[in-house]
Amino acid sequence: MCIFTNLFFQTNVHMIIIELIFNLAILIAVSVLSGFIEARWKRKTIQGAVLQGLLFGGTAIIGMLNPFVLSPGIIFDGRSVVLSLCALFFGPVAAIIAAVLATIYRLYLGGGGIIMGISVIISATLIGLLFHHTRRTGKAHINALYLYFLGLLVHIVMVGLMVAIPMEMRFLTFKTVSITVLIVYPLATVLIGKILKDQEDNAVLIDNLAESELRFRLLFDKAPLGYQSLDFDGNFIDVNQEWLDTFGYQREEVIGKWFGDFLAPELKEEFRKRFPVFKAKGKIVSEFEMIHKNGNNRIVVFEGRIGNDFNGKFKQTHCILKDITEQKRIEEALKESEEKLRFALEGTNDGLWDVNMQTNTVYMSPRGCEILGFTEEEMSNNYDVWMKLVNPEDMEATQQALQEHLSGKKPIFIVEQRLLTKSGEWKWILARGKVVSYDEAGNPLRITGTHTDISQRRLAEEELHQLNENLEQKVIDRTAQLEATNKELEAFSYSISHDLRAPLRGIGGFTQILLEEYRDKLDDDGKRYCAIIRENAKKMSHLIDDLLAFSRLSRFELQKSKIDMKNMVNSIYHEVTTPNQRKHIIFKLDEIQEGYGDPNMLRQVWTNLLSNAVKFSSKVEQPEIKVYCEQKEQKIVYLVKDNGTGFDMQYANKLFGVFQRLHTDAEFEGTGVGLAIVQRIILRHGGEVGAEGEIDKGAMFKFSLPIF
């Protein structure tokens, strides 16, 4: 009798653990859905709170649909964990909605444990709201100890509420489940609570980054110079408002387009040749002739540099530009007016200068003297003294520009230089000039030109240049933050995997021991229960593996290369089938084109699709599987067709979702994650997935990859 009682107790404990594992799997999936809702409707909004309440209330009901039944009307499930965490993280509105839904369904179930069941719903919700209040007032912060204390308090109250169970079942209930409830359920609260807390912290980080990005965007679009960023192929990633205003385009007309398409036709090939040089050198200063939306050409001066990612690899270009069409027009006017270079009047803001190269003297107009803070009397007319006002760092460029003009290489003399003012400060001056007279031997006699104060413009350029550098650093910092967050999430996923697999191995191992050592003491139901425990533990292990694989897909960097698709398909087909299966399957593999992508990831795609084809055609008399490809526009479409069980096309949109299955485990085994993995891999490669089918007439699954 004692042995029977112990076996009964152990069986009940195992059943409670199985129920908890089932609820954990549901809650992990719910945490993903909760994060999806949070990304679109914040929990502080009515819509967000209502949706979270409906989600957690529905989860509590699902738990009650698959409970541990101690006796008719007395059930145990994970609703206490669900409702307390809903109240803690999402507040009163969500908690009340979830509690009302759970209460209604528990009333519907009825039975001797109805009073305790409803009391547990109310107490778990109220305790969760109490902890929510302490958190909002700043008296507590969520950590593992805090979550454990919440779970322990909820389930101490739950054990106390067992007094509401009818007398004849009270002692048995307390003896059977109290220890398990007090040990396992608080740990479950910590596990799911940590997932929700990490999602909450990640949402806060994303909101903060978005706010910071908005502030930067406002400053970015108010910059006085145009800005553009190109990707590795020379396509636009971003431009600011000044760029759009300069060339008359809307943002959507520019982003994603090739930069060469905005250049004058004769410059497209030159850009194609010079862009790789720019990427290799890391910076550029140049001029381009670009096309305004109205068809007119605009001349712009560029200063650009390369932006690298956190690993030092090319990420994008950063270029500032200024429309100098008007400046060029003036220069052309100067060229056409060789004898009338002194075109500017004394009332303009430009200073006039005239150098007599025979006498080595300089004339500076009153405005020219004023720009530098001198009076006409204070300004020396000696050319050598005048040249000493040039900043030593700019002297080489000044002399080079002057010599190129005097030698005839350049039609005009033009240079930007810093000149020393009377106050001792440096002022940026645009000096432009032209030789207006020569001697009989062709030697220059006089050169006349203007000085333009460009200090404000250069200051704006320097500020934008600094802004550009700060932007790059912010991008690096934010990338580092996101990578650190991803590493933490990956470590946490590994921890979850390890922590869940250990009890699963324990469940399977002890169940096997029970079958081997107590087989003669177990009736048929006991043996069947043990088989169910082992099978569900195995399913949970597969589900954990698939979920972890699915969550890691977006974090792996693609290592693309050419792939012999035909050889890969043939190899995988032999891996997913046995020799006996291959005797009955008609397998047709057409000549399919090479692909370009990550070999490991695409191997997973083919493995999932071929495994499905073999599995779902296994029940027909003569299975047939065909693999072929088609080329459509700039993509190659690969197709896997079978004559198996097929599916109803009205459910086609659900095929590639996580946990979306059209068949039961009794019909075909699976976790419902395989096609979701296929879709995520193909989307990362820039392709698409699709499916067609008809019940009992087979199915066709396809995916596309860009032509390399």
Q: Could you describe the 3D structure shown?
A:
The chain has 708 residues and is of the alpha+beta class. It contains 18 helices and 19 strands. The strands form five sheets. It has a five-stranded antiparallel β-sheet, with helices on both faces. It has a five-stranded antiparallel β-sheet with strand order 9-8-12-11-10, with helices on both faces. The protein has a five-stranded mixed β-sheet with strand order 14-16-17-19-18. The longest helix has 63 residues, at 455-517.
Broad shape: elongated
- Number of H- or I-type helical stretches: 18
Main β-sheet, spatial strand arrangement? 4-3-7-6-5
Strand content: 15-25%
CATH topology of the largest domain: Arp2/3 complex 21 kDa subunit ARPC3
- Considering DSSP H and I runs of 4 or more, what fraction of the residues is helical? 40-55%
